[in-house]
Amino acid sequence: MNRFCIAIIFTCLATLSAAGESAPVSAIVGATVVDLEGKSPLENAVIVVEGERIKAIGSAADTAVPAGAEVVDASGTWLIPGLMNMHVHYGLVLPGKMAAELAGESEAELALRMAAAARASLQAGVTTIRAPGDQRHGELALKKAIAKGQAHGPRIFSAGEALAITGGHGSKANTTYHDGPYELMKAARLQISAGASWVKIMISGGIATDGGGIAEALMTPEEIRAVVDAAHRFGAKVAAHSGSPVATDIAVDAGVDSIEHGYFLDRKVLRKMRKNGTWLVPTIVVSQPATQPFFERIGSPLWYLKRRDSVGKQHWRALQMAIEEGVNIALGTDQLPSEPNDGTTATVREAQYYVEAGMTPLQALRAATIEPARMLGADDEIGSLAAGKFADIVAVDKDPAVDIKALRNILLVMKGGRVYRNHLPQ
Ligand SMILES: [Zn+2]
Questions:
Q1: Taking CA atoms, which of 101, 209, 211, 341 is between 20 and 30 Å from 382?
Q2: What separation in Å is there between the alpha carbon of 283 and the centre of ligand 1?
Q3: Is 274 exposed, middle or buried (0-12, 13-18, 19+ CB in 10 A)?
């Protein structure tokens, strides 16, 4: 049975169960649960799921399978929390052929394209994403539709639309710019009012547009501080696109919560991030060789490829140093979570790169699960497998805490107690 058939069946099952009454109870049995704290794994485990949440988790010897529970036999597999990807633009449009094909895309077309990417994310084992700036609030509509069961996709934490300054990253025709503390504060509040729980600011230049140098600090300290103050007063967090050590230094002092990409970060600013608990979302996959076929596929123009190549080596070095310095790292790709890369998905390839850059497999697994949950301030609900938390569970056929490549074979995906992918051996 191919993936498409499976998706159809689960859509039908979902419709049926939505019409049912009491919360369904299921139990995943026979698998080994990976311990994210590095302790020995829980063998022959039972995870009891009631409705959307984990009701109980323990060894088969002391955890009973409730009568009438639907049993999922996952013998021989390893269970981990659903993967998280903290840098996803479902409405992503990149320069070249891709942009030409999507020129004039209507809101309806955009919404459907985003919904397809959200379904594919679940198939890739990704049960939570953060959208640090997307298009026309499509991801906020998608989040609502997913919550209502009208669409299937990960939990979405969104920044609404990214805030750009005149001439900076994101410069293109018909873009709204915000300049000065007042305009940026107002713009941040507008995003929060639309449903954003993060605010995204472009504080240095970037790869995908030629607005300003990637290593330059383009947004002023006053502007950054104004956004952070406005966001934090509403309980929202701030993500800053930054390739620049100078811009990052200013952002960390201003209390920005996460730095995106960090292409040219140096040891001095990384130490400051570590000291302040500032998060780094590396999106390393974008600048490394694994994504070359992707950029060819979307018909990237030469100037774009050159700009990308110009950051590759230093981006890699910055990631290595961030790992050495113990900076908080949460996985993000800046590609669709399911985007094919090097025989796997962007999400998994990103995690593999973390190991190649110096993380242990367990650290990389944490960067894809509990660490993003901590960054989101949602670790009481998601990011690990424990009673009371959402039943966002993935099964793989090896222990990813020993070999991160285990993530290449996603056998089972459950989100909120519902199975969206089941490739368990029958
Ligand atoms: Zn991005």
A1: 341
A2: 8
A3: middle
CA of 88 to the centre of ligand 1 (A): 7
Task: For residue 209, report the distance from its CA to the centre of ligand 1, in Å.
Answer: 11
Least confident of 210-219, 272-281, 300-309, 377-386: 210-219
Taking phi first (over 0 means left), then psi (-120 to 50 degrees means alpha), and beta for anything else, what does residue 125 get? left
Q: Distance between terminal CA atoms of the chain?
A: 13
DSSP 91: T
| pTM for the whole structure | 0.94
pLDDT at residue 219, rounded to an integer:
94
Distance 405 CA to ligand 1 centre (A): 25
Chain center to CA of 146: 16
Phi and psi angles of residue 30, each rounded to the nearest 5 degrees, phi first: 85, -10
Give me ligand 1 centre to Cα 207, in Å.
10
pLDDT tens-digit readout, 185-221: 999 999 999 999 999 999 998 777 666 778 788 999 9
Q: What is the mean pLDDT of residues 17-36?
A: 85
Calculate how far, in angstroms, residue 132's C-alpha sits from the geometric centre of ligand 1.
Answer: 7
| Residue 305 confidence class, pLDDT cut points 50, 70, 90 | confident
Question: Which domains occur in the chain, in start order?
Answer: 3-82+383-422 (2.30.40.10), 84-376 (3.20.20.140)
Q: Is the pLDDT of residue 65 over 60?
A: yes
Query: Exposed e or buried b for every residue in 81-116, given b needs 16+ CB within 10 A?
Result: bbbbbbbbbbbbbbbbebbeeeeebeeeebbebbbe
Q: How far is the CA of 199 from the centre of ligand 1 (A)?
A: 13
Ligand 1 geometric centre to CA of 383 (Å):
22
